[in-house]
Amino acid sequence: MSNLSVPERKQEAFFIKINNLLNKKDLDNHSQALANILMANYHVLNSDTLRAREFMTIAQPLVQSVNEASLYNQYDYVNVFVLRSEGDLEEALKVSEDLYEKVKDKWVLNKLGDLVLENAYINALFARYRESIQSLDIALDYSLDSNDPYLISETYNVFGILYSFLNDHKSAIMYFEKAIDVMQQHPNLVRNIYFYANLADSYRQDDQYEKALELTDKTMQLAIRENDIPLQAFAHQVKARVYTNQEKYEEALQQLKSAKTLQEQVGEQMFGYELYLDFASAYLKLGQIDEAEEHIELAIDSAKEAAKLDDFYLNKLRSDIEAKRGNFEQAYNLLSKSSRAYRQSYNDNLTYVSNLAREQLDQERLSFENKLLENEVALNSKYVDKYKSYSNFLIAFVILLFLLMSIGFWLFFKYRRLAKTNEQLALTDTLTKLPNRRQMFRKLDNEHVKSVPGQSIYSLIIFDIDHFKTINDRFGHHIGDKVIKRIASITQHTLREEDTIGRISGEEFLIILPETVLKDAEVIARRLNERFANAEFSDLAEGIHLTASFGVTEYSQEDERLDMVINRADRLLYKAKKEGRNRVISTFNNDDTDSN
């Protein structure tokens, strides 16, 4: 029973079988140990950490008394998930890595995939994104080789979680949607309805509050129907985050209190840690400083290992508290400490993922069809081998083999063309046909690598259409899309042949200007601003007049990393919008912008 799939081990029928086994008299120690481990596995899969630990505590001395390697492995497998749920991430990671080395040539593929996927998730919690990507790559192979839709959907889900940690919410949304799509295509699977909650939280982080609330309500309805208490608690927590973003702090606190009441029934420490921090944030917004400080300490007490990883965020909250109390020097020191911790823990990884890992992850998605094709060819080969012994069908099989090879070659070339087409689509914005965010960052990285102060230079323009939401609300999204396409066309006809423009989000564009100094880049930005203001949109709809806000900067010898250039342009764009929009702010005309 230990080799059953995860969906089978989550079902009530599995619980009944194990419970009946535990109720039998005269069970030997081996059977008692395994039954308690499997019961713990059932409870941790259903998010009841307290009950899972109870059964693991019973199993531990029984496992030691049997002293059998395979039984220790089963114990460690379940213990990885229990330890992670309890917030002991270091121990969970150590146990999972040691266990994988012991069983990678022995266990069934989907169980190995489940173990490696948990390893990827824990590494993501540690902000060890390179290690997480490597584990995701292995988990993906296991999920495809085992043809396990549950494991495939879970892999997509961890991809989404990784992107969410990296604040790339659009990519997170894409992967959570794919996880849900796989789940819905296989209704025989146990419903992983927490995918909906993850997607709702990503919509919230992407400021799509209506979609977030709609999905949160759907999650709550399904969780109540399935009697999934942890998921009900998480749905309340996501709704509280939406309300906090919307500055509805009292409503947020009510949702958090409901989540806490439910969370205390299951005792998952990692969830409790995040919940206390959400309380602290809401109380801080309400000006209730003592309560905010108290909940920060409660968060740390609930999951000390997680708190060590989150040091930069905790110090940011403490800095805000000291600023509210008027202790500005202390607030500044804490903020500086937070910034240093963030740079030390995240900058290297974020730059790596922005310029390389995202491409790797998306290439894995594009290679799904090719890997599935390999599986299909392998199955065809087995089919042929199986019937070779029947000599009276030899001629028929030769013909069949020829047909299969022809189909195989046809499929191979078809999917090769499809892979190339998909790769091009993955690098192109579907609305404007311009390079998308991923392609622009790749081009920008190439430009950055070849730039040498005094020999080669480049400038960067980031601009955003002013009050674009008003155009969508007044004339409809179909007119808004046409306006974006018109702006893209005007920009392309204004720029030089060697310049590159790409669309990096809804109404935001990035322009790369090779061999261009800041002063010339500012001239180009002002020319664009003037042409947008004078552009004629009456053929689309009467009454459309628009402007844009621009942030302009250039590469300098102090820019050791690409993200320093991008962040500076972002800050200049933000300043342009803050100062009233319809203007160009550059490093040249902005005394307040530092070199970082």
Folded structure, characterized:
This protein has 596 residues and is mostly helical. Helix content is 72%, strand content 5%. It is built from 26 helices and 5 strands. The protein has helices at 6-10, 12-22, 29-45, 49-66, 69-86, 89-103, 109-125, 129-145, 149-165, 169-185, 194-205, 209-226, 229-245, 249-263, 269-285, 289-302, 304-309, 311-324, 328-366, 368-386, 394-426, 437-450, 468-475, 477-494, 518-534, 562-578, and strands at residues 458-465, 500-503, 508-514, 548-554, 584-586. It has a 5-stranded mixed β-sheet, with helices on both faces. Helix 3 (29-45) packs antiparallel against helix 4 (49-66) and helix 20 (368-386) runs antiparallel to helix 21 (394-426). It is globular, with a radius of gyration of 28 Å. Mean pLDDT is 81; it is low at 351-361 and 592-596.
Element layout with pairings:
Blueprint lengths: L5 H5 L1 H11 L6 H17 L3 H18 L2 H18 L2 H15 L5 H17 L3 H17 L3 H17 L3 H17 L8 H12 L3 H18 L2 H17 L3 H15 L5 H17 L3 H14 L1 H6 L1 H14 L3 H39 L1 H19 L7 H33 L10 H14 L7 E8 L2 H8 L1 H18 L5 E4 L4 E7 L3 H17 L13 E7 L7 H17 L5 E3 L10
Parallel strand pairs: 4-5
Antiparallel strand pairs: 1-3, 1-4, 2-3
Helix pairs in contact: 2-3, 3-4, 3-5, 4-5, 5-6, 6-7, 7-8, 7-9, 8-9, 8-19, 9-10, 10-11, 11-12, 11-13, 12-13, 13-14, 13-15, 14-15, 15-16, 15-18, 16-18, 18-19, 19-22, 20-21, 23-24, 24-25
